[in-house]
């Protein structure tokens, strides 16, 4: 496995394609939940051993090992279904055991922090963008409602907005596709917009709505990347109609005006349909 690219098993998607909740995971997990959890825990033990070293490793072998194990872990997380609820009337399904472990041990935060301390080279940055996009687009669970998923995502996006690091042009398609997925999830789960806007400055960077700030530079681009940015921005602006603080931020910090859901109802239907 170590000789194989950690992204080789992810579904290839061109810049014009979209993934959704109905998209099939890259490698369906046919084992029972307990077995999948055991496999996940085994990968995490090997990753955490590297992450817990006192000195951040610059070894390419350590980086390859972390990448390969992370690939396996996040594919298992994306494939996991919510746990069965003992309360048949519950509106929110309980977390699956893998997601519960990710939340309890703050695994994604540890992974992103390790990459940032090590120095986020373009290969690692691109790989993380693709993995988060796969995770959000294919997950069977509402991951962004958990700060243990949302905050490390914002930390990664904050690095993309950093003036010194930024986002290389070769990674712009991956960045916009991830932002588009976040906005689709936000449209389906309005609570995510509130969480995004209220996130701590350490995760958001210098603005109150990092997602919006990252999208704006791409909206006048030609081709699929521009269309994806515009579609995502429409979702943000439509959702702002029910969130006064976000609407005010957009009105005061950009040349856009908040819009109502009715203004873009036809455009929204394609995104919000389950």
TrEMBL record:
Biological-process GO terms, alphabetical: early endosome to late endosome transport; endosome organization; endosome to lysosome transport; lysosome organization
Low complexity composition bias: residue spans: 12-28
GO cellular component: FHF complex
Transmembrane regions listed in the UniProt entry: none
InterPro entries membership: FHIP
Regions annotated as coiled coil: none
Ranges for region Disordered: 1-29
Protein name: Uncharacterized protein
């Amino acid at each position: 496995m170590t000789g194989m690219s950690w992204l080789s098993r992810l579904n290839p998607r061109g810049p014009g394609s979209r993934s959704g909740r109905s998209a099939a995971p890259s490698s369906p997990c046919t084992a029972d939940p307990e077995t999948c959890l055991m496999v996940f825990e085994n990968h995490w033990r090997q990753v955490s051993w590297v992450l817990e070293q006192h000195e951040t490793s610059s070894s390419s072998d350590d980086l390859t090992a972390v990448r390969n194990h992370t690939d396996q872990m996040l594919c298992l997380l994306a494939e996991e279904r919510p746990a069965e609820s003992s309360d048949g009337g519950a509106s929110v399904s309980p977390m699956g055991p893998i997601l519960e472990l990710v939340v309890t041990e703050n695994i994604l935060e540890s992974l992103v922090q390790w990459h940032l301390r090590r120095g986020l080279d373009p290969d690692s940055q691109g790989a993380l963008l693709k993995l988060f996009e796969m995770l959000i687009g294919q997950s069977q669970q509402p991951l962004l409602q958990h700060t243990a998923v949302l905050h490390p995502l914002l930390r990664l996006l904050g690095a993309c907005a950093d003036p010194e690091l930024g986002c290389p042009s070769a990674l712009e398609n991956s960045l916009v596709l991830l932002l588009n997925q976040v906005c689709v999830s936000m449209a389906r789960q309005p609570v995510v917009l509130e969480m995004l806007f209220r996130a701590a400055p350490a995760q958001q960077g210098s603005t109150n709505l990092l997602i919006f700030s990252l999208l704006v530079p791409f909206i006048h681009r030609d081709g699929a990347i521009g269309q994806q940015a515009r579609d995502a921005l429409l979702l943000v602006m439509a959702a702002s109609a029910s969130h006064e603080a976000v609407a005010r931020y957009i009105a005061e910090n950009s040349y856009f005006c908040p819009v109502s859901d009715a203004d873009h109802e036809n455009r929204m239907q394609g995104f919000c349909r389950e």
